[in-house]
Amino acid sequence: MYRLENSRFVSQYDGFKDISLLKVIKWRISNISFQKKQIDYRLNIEKNLEMITSSKDFISWLGHSTFLIQIDGARIITDPIMFDIPMFKRQVSFPYSIDELKDIDYILISHSHYDHLDLKSIKLLSQFSPKVITPLKMSRYLKSVENIDIVEMDWFQDLHVSSNLTITFLPAKHWGRRGVFDTNKTLWGSFLIRDIYFAGDTSYFSHFQEIGKKFKISKALMPIGAYKPQFIMKSNHMNPQESIQGALDLKADEVIPMHFGTFKLSDEDFDEPIRLANEESLKNKIPLRELNVGAGIYL
Q1: What is the pTM of this model?
Q2: Which domains does the chain have, with CATH numbers?
Q3: Which of 49, 136, 179, 265 has its CA 20 to 30 A from that of 284?
């Protein structure tokens, strides 16, 4: 599914190959006025301390691609972003303090981009001595973080946490980079957490059908934002219609949207992704569970 060339991952699931410097320059020039536009839409914060400190299984959305998930006593956080990131400020606060999070056993990182791999957040969470589950070759970025146990995973590799919980690393169509010279020197992907699918960052591609054939998925945590302009975003991110189609390909029972409304990463209006996702879910008769930041559901 991939090969290594000069220490870089080369795959049909590589979204970077469709991006050019000319496209990026064209986008930056064309969206100057949009970047100055006032943001009127704001996500709501709905803290639920009773849930996140309970012994029950639950999923809680903490903004962007960050979820707190508790299954079989294991506390898992995905792509933790608790602060601003380079060039982008949070438009909604992180809903819980580090003390309120109580404990974290596993940190799941989908890829190396700054809005998914945030060293400041991981260093703060390292006080819990967590296992950090990453794609292959990502240890290179975590050398400055102490008190963590790093586990690198390949696509379709399993980590057996308990008799009732297996974490599987799966493909996504995206890419990875943090600097000028490290493009795709780490793998990227998505995760299956028992029967909960966390898509990470991805464009719409055949991996959804492949995963849907192999696994039973109850809830699909799907990105719905950062899709305009299409000429630069389509190979890396999904629009809401593609996200719902991806959930249908997965044969998921329910969709929980993410990756919208937290950072101003692209050109669509802040309220557009969730509005279109709701419309598309109704049209395709697949339930969509819209969560406020900090809110969640019991499993």
Answers
A1: 0.95
A2: 23-32+43-298 (3.60.15.10)
A3: 265
